[in-house]
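Notebook, p. 212. Picked up where the previous page left off. The plan for this session was modest: take the two constructs that came back from the sequencing core last week, fold each one, and keep the raw output in the notebook itself so nobody has to go hunting through shared drives later. Recording the first one now, exactly as returned: residue sequence, then the structure token string.
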Amino acid sequence: MNRLPTLFVSHGAPTYALEPGLAGAQLAAAAARLPRPEAVLVVSPHWMTAQPRVATTAQPQTIHDFGGFDPALYELSYPAPGHPELAERALDLLQAAGWAAQADPRHGLDHGAWVPLRHLYPQAEVPVFQVSLPASLTAAEARDYGAALAPLADEGVLIVGSGSLTHNLYEFRMGEAQEAAYAREFQDWVRAAVTAGDGDRLAATLDIAPHARRAHPTAEHFLPLLVAWGAARPPLPVTVLAGGIVHGVLSMESYLFGTDLQGASVG
């Protein structure tokens, strides 16, 4: 199998599971045009640990790690199998790169994993396992973390950093009806850095981008973008999966690193 691209996906609010919108259609179209992976590896801010942990679970449970939403969301299940062998390979790679990683034989799939995967692989036929996001990770370390996992893309693993291109929960909960100009400006700035292949600028985003601290009062939903970038190998053609801005402030934009899917929408 040829090397797979890596993916940063904005997983939005849990309601994305039931309301795919433009972003869900973009993920489905991209998955249809990519080789089927042996497994999907997801790094999500909804599984943060002091040191890296790798889920070696054979049959991960669907975790409903949110509250106050439509009761129908709590009835959803994503019954994809795990892949203990490839999870062990991820563990070995992290340890070889100097990370104090440990196996976790019980962790399931948090909503940062299963919600977007419902749109990528709706039949839940592709095995999935998670790798935790270290809580103290810096932007530079996030790229290194992805780089440690990069060999898996040569072995049929789709490496996914699942986060959110903008993530101001206070403003989301306020229920903004109209698109916030700052969210669009921040999204466009990040897109320019991504499509220019400027990894250093991207790593400095939360320090230098317009409205960075409003778009990300905390860093954990941005760091998976740097993990996905670090896991890709240059040259880095990019497919922009433009998902629009929902709830006024949540950019649903996603990026495939390492492929240029001709005809994919760039919004």
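Okay, moving on. Second construct, recorded in the same format:
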Amino acid sequence: MEASQASLAVPGVKQVVSDYVTLTKPKVQLLLLLTTITTMYVAGDPSVGLVAITVVGGFLSAGGAGAFNHFYDRDIDAAMPRTASRPVPSGRISPRAALIYAFALQIASFAILWSAANLLSACLALAGFFWYTVVYTVWLKRRSPQNIVIGGAAGAVPPLVGWAAVTGGVAPAALYLFAIVFYWTPPHFWALSLLMKDEYARVGVPMMPVVHGEAETRRQIVLYTLLLTVLTLLPFVFGFFGVIYAVFAVGLAGAFITLSLRLQRRADRKSALRTYLFSLGYLAVLFVAMVLDAQL
């Protein structure tokens, strides 16, 4: 009898652990942490220990923001088939527990970054948490089609955290990296929103394709991709990076522009999915190219 009860308890524990990990949105975090790590090696020559502790601090901060998002959006998550099985709307984790968890993670992040890195990196991570939870999730997401444009600044904070952890400050080069992620976010997310337009419309979230239509969204994707291209070339023009970075930046920009123009012309789901998936690899490869350029 005791063995049977123990065997039943194990899956239960696994489910709880899995649910709390899910609240941190680990898949979303992978790219954020990559920009943190690569930025640290662009900024200097950090120790493995400093990189590890900054990654932990960044993960906890972004994870807290993700948990808050799960808490706050539980009503619209419950109304969408894609998100209805998430831990909070499904009832496996209570809203109160998710909220406490969110703030506990952020407090731990601040303490770890402050004690093991420096106060500036801890404050920047806190600013990213505040921007994602209050500015994006609470204020903009349900009120403005510009939600992802302004709210996307939260996702651009990790390079600043990484730079500050290594140098103790924020240099102009770090601000360029922030700007690149900031202007990358709209075409990346709008390509995804084209695929989920009906779900957003059902729950009243004013994403760009819901409010201004798919044609305008595709046009905005092209415009932001062109703007992003200019921004990615400026670090080379101003001498922050060299030829290796420039070659990658030009090649990636050409592919991104081609995909965005194809999406505008064909206006189909397949093109939207290709653009979205490419945008993930685009940012990852661009930041790795920065490290190659800085280290070689």
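Notes on construct two before I forget. The chain has a mean pLDDT of 94.
Flagging for discussion at group meeting.
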